[in-house]
Design a protein that fits this description.
Helix content: 40-55%
Structural class: alpha/beta
Order of helices and strands: HEHHEHHEHEHHEEH
CATH architecture of the largest domain: 3-Layer(aba) Sandwich
CATH class of the largest domain: Alpha Beta
Strand order of the largest sheet: 3-4-2-1-5-6
Shape: globular
Strand content: 5-15%
Distance between the termini: 55 Å
Number of strands: 6
Largest sheet: 6 strands, parallel
Number of helices: 9
CATH topology of the largest domain: Undecaprenyl pyrophosphate synthetase
Number of domains: 2
Length: about 260
């Protein structure tokens, strides 16, 4: 078999495997809330001898594909870790380029008819007051234009830190105790959850958290909400993430026996 024939044979086997995998996972439980740590843009760029901005741009393209795939599998809630609070402490040219790209993609998202056809509520979670004006403006417009939606949810974790989220929740509860509208004895898990950034969601805890790039840690992502989430770590850089990778992650999720502490 020549090289061309081998390539055609391989592509045929790949398509067959893809169809079989999709058929299998559609007969199992699909996670309702999937959270993703989008990692590996810069390493993808270095591996491909490109500038970091090219890696971030390819990563942004992968996000658009991901949203379509989640719609195909009826995943109703998607939470994306796009920029950590720690990332914002860098003062370099790359951060400025990243801000520019995020601002442009948010504006594009607001004009995307799919968001409105799917009635997708888009919300930023994090200390957004720390972001540049253009990004805050784009997030505000997205929030306003999707405020009445509730069929799908897209959460953009930006300027986000899991410890910051817990600190902010404690401060909110502390103010209520201070003004007398709540007693310390009233504080329980439900009260804490109602003061987290994800309190607007019908299901704040992800069924599955997926991290790309081969790193095996959460890096402070959704510290409270991840208590019983299934964790999936994949050795693929985010810009290379494909539909088959999402399907493989869902199959791993389906093979887990979820006890939720019981």
């Amino acid at each position: 078999m020549d090289v061309k024939g081998a390539a055609l044979h391989a592509s045929g086997l790949y398509r067959l495997y893809t169809r079989r995998l999709e058929s299998e996972i559609r007969h199992g439980a699909i996670p309702n809330h999937v959270a993703l740590i989008l990692d590996g843009n810069r390493r993808w760029a270095r591996r491909n001898l490109n500038f970091a901005r090219i890696g971030h741009r390819r990563g942004a393209d992968a996000v658009e594909n991901l949203l379509d795939w989640c719609e195909e599998f009826d995943i109703r809630i998607v939470t994306l870790y796009t920029l950590s609070a720690e990332n914002m402490e860098r003062e370099d040219e790359e951060l400025g380029l990243l801000y520019e790209l995020i601002g442009a993609r948010l504006e594009k998202l607001n004009e995307d008819p799919r968001i409105h056809e799917r009635r997708m509520r888009v919300t930023a979670i994090g200390r957004t007051e720390l972001l540049p004006d253009r990004i805050r403006g784009a997030l505000r417009r997205l929030d306003e234009s999707t405020a009445g939606y509730g069929d799908r949810f897209l959460n953009i974790a930006i300027a986000y830190g899991g410890q910051d989220e817990l600190v902010d929740a404690v401060r909110k509860i502390g103010r209520r105790i201070q003004d007398g509208s709540m007693r310390p004895a009233d504080v329980d898990k439900g009260v804490i959850e109602s003061n987290l950034y994800t309190s607007h969601l019908p299901q704040s805890s992800p069924d599955m958290i997926l991290r790309t790039s081969g790193e095996k840690r959460l890096s402070g992502f959704l510290l409270w909400q991840s208590a019983y989430s299934e964790l999936v770590f994949m050795d693929v850089f985010w810009p290379d993430f494909r539909k088959i990778d999402l399907m493989r992650a869902i199959r791993m999720f389906q093979k887990r026996r979820r006890r939720i502490g019981r």
